[in-house]
Design goal:
The longest helix has 20 residues, at 29-48. The chain has 10 helices and 16 strands. The relative contact order is 0.17. Strand 10 and strand 11 form a beta hairpin. It starts with 7 loop residues before the first strand and ends in a 9-residue tail after the last strand. The protein has one domain: L-arginine/glycine Amidinotransferase, Chain A (5-stranded Propeller). The chain has helices at 29-48, 62-69, 85-88, 109-112, 119-130, 158-161, 172-183, 229-240, 290-303, 315-320, and strands at 8-14, 53-57, 74-77, 91-94, 100-106, 133-140, 147-148, 153-157, 187-191, 208-212, 215-220, 251-256, 276-278, 281-285, 308-312, 329-332. It is an alpha/beta fold.
């Protein structure tokens, strides 16, 4: 599985479908759901400036999606439950022969928390149409639980994958074997995902991610009263004391969470960490707090000096359970080989 910064042939997304996911939004679930659709469309349009975007949409929602997304986004009709395609969709692979394939993980709605019958089938549906080879994996997991450097190293949390609501019959060793076999891994760095407010049971893409070889971004907070303060500090220490699959110590770039509470009294944990790297750019969520957003932009521009930083008003998506990274999935260009791959 190539790293996210490997050149893409396309980004895949799916149109949001579960209004109940926004039941805790301060503006009410109906308004939040409509705002989320507009946010999905904005993300898709911005990504389309850099690369092809394929948006999976239920038949009855095509006109709505076309109207909001505009002509630069490809609409693909297929049945799906909701728009978290990072989780329900495939993890794409490539080889040195210029082939692309994908892993179809077993998806159970984040431990049977949500309706997922259609989402569990959508990967096979769209890949078969595209003629992309698919490897079905019996391991229950989601794409947001996995972050690779493309050179044999995986970041993950035990809370999400080694969990009785996912894989009660598998040991940690068995789970590691599945991950290593299907993603061609040599090393797994396990982080602490014990963040109770996260319905994904602590997906890594809100906690830490590779941004280039041997360099990791990690979510932190300067507020010792923040409910995730100790978990985030522990993860930073784990990363600073770790090496990647090639034996290199990790350089850790700390990303501060927004310093203020939302109108609902909630801290936006992992918001900036949940960005998405595209060809020539980075799609970065806005928190709505000007000072925090300026600091985040400056930090990301320094971390990605050769990419355009595009900030999008996607905070409402956070109330549904994630953000930009959670709603996108990269398809790598198998004909491009980067140094080190």
């Amino acid at each position: 599985m190539p790293a996210e910064w490997h050149p893409h042939t396309a980004t895949w997304m799916a149109w949001p479908g579960l209004i109940e996911a926004y039941s805790e939004a301060p503006q009410g679930e109906k308004l939040a759901f409509q705002q989320a659709k507009k946010a999905y469309a904005e993300v898709a349009r911005e990504i389309a400036r850099f690369e092809t975007v394929n948006m999976i949409v239920n038949k009855e929602e095509i006109l709505e999606a076309e109207g909001l997304c505009g002509p630069t986004v490809n609409i693909i009709e297929a049945e799906c439950d909701d728009g978290w395609f990072r989780d329900s969709g495939p993890s794409f692979l490539s080889n040195d022969k210029g082939d692309v394939a994908a892993v179809n993980w077993t998806f159970n709605g984040w431990g049977n928390k949500y309706t997922h019958e259609k989402d569990a089938k959508v990967t096979k549906t769209v890949l078969d149409r595209k003629g992309i080879k698919c490897f079905d994996c019996p391991l229950v997991t989601e794409g947001g639980a996995l972050h690779v450097d493309g050179e044999g190293t995986l970041l993950a949390t035990k809370n999400s994958i080694i969990n009785k609501n996912r894989n009660p019959h598998l040991s940690q060793t068995e789970i590691e074997t599945y991950l290593s076999d299907y993603l061609n891994l040599e090393k797994i760095i396990w982080l602490n995902g014990d963040v109770p407010a996260d319905e994904t049971d602590g997906h890594v893409d809100g906690l830490a991610c590779f941004i280039r070889p041997a360099t990791v971004m990690a979510s932190v907070t300067t507020n010792p009263n923040h409910p995730d303060y100790e978990v985030l500090q522990e993860n930073v220490e784990i990363l600073k004391s770790s090496t990647d699959a090639k034996g290199r110590p990790l350089n850790v770039v700390e990303v501060n969470n927004p310093s203020q509470q939302t109108e609902a009294g909630i801290m936006l944990t992992g918001l900036f960490l949940n960005h998405y790297i595209v060809n020539g750019g980075v799609i970065l969520p806005l928190s709505g707090f000007d000072a925090d957003d300026r600091k985040a932009r400056n930090l990301f521009q320094k971390a990605f000096p050769d990419r355009e930083i595009v900030q999008v008003a996607s905070k409402v998506v956070w109330y549904g359970g994630g953000n930009v990274h959670c709603i996108t999935q990269q398809q790598p260009d198998p004909k491009v080989v980067l140094d080190g791959e």
